[in-house]
């Protein structure tokens, strides 16, 4: 049997699907809230824009219409060409008529100076009106524009005055500055209202977000529970499929997978049971003829000295191969008992050093094995099975390692369990274990070199060793020593809690 790594089987760790679900719930809620917040922000921005434009346009249209009406009603009383005094009285009349608009009216005649030039908003009124507005008015076109004047929003309106009977320009230009502070206050109030309503709306959106996340995560939770049941061996677990969305497709796929897995596992179990039953039946059927063959071969072997050399060689070869076959059959029967759960422990309080020493002496390995066996180490073990464990490990080391083989017994404190453990170490002086062989060392019938179909052993020695150790609630490991050679370590409890298993 080839040697390799530890007999400890890897443990399949299930993913914490509960954590996954909780993380997914948080991401769904956050995503829902982000979408809700973004939608609310975009809606508020568009609403604000439209509302602001509507407010300003209403003010603008109202101011322009009233200014046209007042100019049309007062221009007939204006003397042409008007003097600066006439223009000042004309603008004062317009301001009195437009008190509700709180506007400041200015006028000029044929590109002259604005009148009044120092009322309300200061001197040099020409620079207070955008050039674009003045140019359009000068060209005979009414114009208006919103500007920021000394930090305040203002609507600038410019109207050219024409003669009633024709479209000819009279040369009179009327300008009005309409403050927009009230409109801006209304806009700011609208913004504040939107901000005040956004926070409660966002808070209220948590409820539909949680409801939506719950609806999405319900199939995920069911999938988690079903996966856990599959992991625990309940292969008949199936999910209830509702709807036709992607989650329903996932449930159908899971059910198909579970059905295929259940079928495959059942087939594998059936094949494994058949193979074990076959091995047990074959080994049992071989045992009787082998017993007869062994008896006959023993008689021939005793008389081999009186036979001619060729016949004697043939007899000894048959005797040797019959012995190997008998040992293989015994190993097969032992493995069959382990597979059937029929292997039993018969525990006894034993001196570990004395037990190991008897194993070495019974095989005649005193000259090949060095021992480190302290006195006073006692444990509850099955002497027969420990004898098999020690004999298999030493025999394996002698066949595949290098002499001398060392065996040591010691007691050590387990770092995690906080209890004393019995350690039996077998080391050789060979080349060590090939790293590619290590993962398969305790596999049944494994051979490191596939080209070597013959072996001195049955290929079951280390597998039987690991089963015997497991029966004692222990572990056996294999590794390469830093100085070279292979080291097998058997880790056993000093006290086994059951008399028979």
Automatic annotation (TrEMBL):
It catalyses: ATP + protein L-histidine = ADP + protein N-phospho-L-histidine. It is found in: Cell membrane. Keywords: ATP-binding, Kinase, Membrane, Nucleotide-binding, Phosphoprotein, Transferase, Transmembrane, Transmembrane helix, Two-component regulatory system. It is an enzyme of class 2 (transferase). SMART domains: HAMP, HATPase_c, HisKA. One of its GO terms (biological process) is osmosensory signaling via phosphorelay pathway. Residues 281-496 form the Histidine kinase domain. One of its GO terms (cellular component) is plasma membrane. One of its GO terms (molecular function) is phosphorelay response regulator activity. Its EC number is 2.7.13.3. Residues 214-266 form the HAMP domain. It comes from the Bacteria. Transmembrane segments: none annotated. PANTHER family: SENSOR HISTIDINE KINASE GLRK, TWO-COMPONENT HISTIDINE KINASE. This is Sensor-like histidine kinase SenX3. It comes from Streptomyces morookaense (Streptoverticillium morookaense).
């Amino acid at each position: 049997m080839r040697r390799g790594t530890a007999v400890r089987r890897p443990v399949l760790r299930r993913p914490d699907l509960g954590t996954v679900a909780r993380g997914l719930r948080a991401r769904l809620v956050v995503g829902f809230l982000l979408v809700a917040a973004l939608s609310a922000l975009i809606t508020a921005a568009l609403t604000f824009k439209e509302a602001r434009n509507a407010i300003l346009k209403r003010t603008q249209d109202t101011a322009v219409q009233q200014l046209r009406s007042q100019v049309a009603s007062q221009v007939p009383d204006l003397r042409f060409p008007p003097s600066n005094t006439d223009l000042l009285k004309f603008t004062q009349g317009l301001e009195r008529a437009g008190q509700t608009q709180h506007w400041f009216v200015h006028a000029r005649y044929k590109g002259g100076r604005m009148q009044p030039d120092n009322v309300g908003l200061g001197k040099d009124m020409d620079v207070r009106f955008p050039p674009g507005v003045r140019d359009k008015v000068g060209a005979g076109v009414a114009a208006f524009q919103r500007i920021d004047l000394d930090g305040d929003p203002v609507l600038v309106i410019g109207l050219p005055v024409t003669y009633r009977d024709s479209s000819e320009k009279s040369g009179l230009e009327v300008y009005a500055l309409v403050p927009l502070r009230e409109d801006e206050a209304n806009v700011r109030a609208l913004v504040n209202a939107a901000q005040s309503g956004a926070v409660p709306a966002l808070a209220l959106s948590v409820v539909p977000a949680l409801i939506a996340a719950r609806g999405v995560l319900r199939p995920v939770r069911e999938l988690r529970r079903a996966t856990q049941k599959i992991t625990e061996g309940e292969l008949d677990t199936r999910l209830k499929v509702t709807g036709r969305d992607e989650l329903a497709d996932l449930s159908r796929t899971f059910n198909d997978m579970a059905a295929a897995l259940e079928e495959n596992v059942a087939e594998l179990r059936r094949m494994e049971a058949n193979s074990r039953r076959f091995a047990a039946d074959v080994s049992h059927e071989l045992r009787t003829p082998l017993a007869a063959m062994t008896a006959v071969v023993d008689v021939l072997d005793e008389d081999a000295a009186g036979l001619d050399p060729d016949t004697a060689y043939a007899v000894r070869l048959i005797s040797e191969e019959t012995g190997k076959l008998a040992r293989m059959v015994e190993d097969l029967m032992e493995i069959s008992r382990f597979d059937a759960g029929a292997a039993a422990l018969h525990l006894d309080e034993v001196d570990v050093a004395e037990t190991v020493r008897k194993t070495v002496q019974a095989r005649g390995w005193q000259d090949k094995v060095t021992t480190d066996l302290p006195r006073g180490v006692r444990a509850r073990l099955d002497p027969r099975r420990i004898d098999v464990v020690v004999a298999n490990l030493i025999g394996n080391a002698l066949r595949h390692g290098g002499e001398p083989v060392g065996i040591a017994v010691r007691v050590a404190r387990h770092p995690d369990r906080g209890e004393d453990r019995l350690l039996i170490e077998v080391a050789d002086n060979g080349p060590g274990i090939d790293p590619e062989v290590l993962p398969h060392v305790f596999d049944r019938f494994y051979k490191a070199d596939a080209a070597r179909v013959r072996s001195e052993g049955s290929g079951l020695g280390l597998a039987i060793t690991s089963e015997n150790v497991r029966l004692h609630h222990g572990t056996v490991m294999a590794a390469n020593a830093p100085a070279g050679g292979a080291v097998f370590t058997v880790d056993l409890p000093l006290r086994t809690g059951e008399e028979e298993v």
